[in-house]
Amino acid sequence: MALVRCKNGHMFSARRYGTICPYCQMNTVNDEKAAQLAGEEFDVDASLMTEVANPVCGWLVCVIGPTQGRDYKIRAGKNFVGRADDMDIQILGDNGISRRNHAILVYDPKKKNTMLLPGDAAGIAYLDGEPVYTPEELYPYATIEMGQSKFLFLPFCGDNFNWADVGRELLCM
Length: 173
Description:
The chain has helices at residues 14-17, 31-37, 44-50; strands at residues 3-5, 11-13, 56-64, 71-75, 77-82, 89-90, 103-108, 113-118, 126-127, 130-131, 136-137, 143-146, 149-155. By secondary structure, it is mostly beta strands. The strands form 3 sheets. It has a 6-stranded antiparallel β-sheet with strand order 4-3-13-12-9-10, with no helix packed on it.
């Protein structure tokens, strides 16, 4: 059975659905599809084992807006926020959010903190009702507004847990 994976991680049969994911309707032209087009077998298990994990470091949770109740994973490094398919955090349904780079969320594993930076788009991000023009450090349950939506920030990594510490001392209590 020839399986492909979309950019959101859904696995489905390319023979049955072609290149469009039946779950999220995203077009999937990737390594699996390229292997199929070349007539080669693609080993899904080997692909999953060699895939580099970029574990979650925190979340944005929409509390007001079209995607109310949805969560968005924050990964280590820069997370670009917008509506476009190539954004690290893609927020659909709110046209007040810029397509690209409305804001940037950065988790720094060395400093063990998360920062909110202004994007280079026309839209403005607000932290607790104040516009963000310079980098601002986030704290648990900080309120971030973009477009017509409001989000709460929930950290996972920080002083009590950091992925770099796993294997040494799991939790510092």
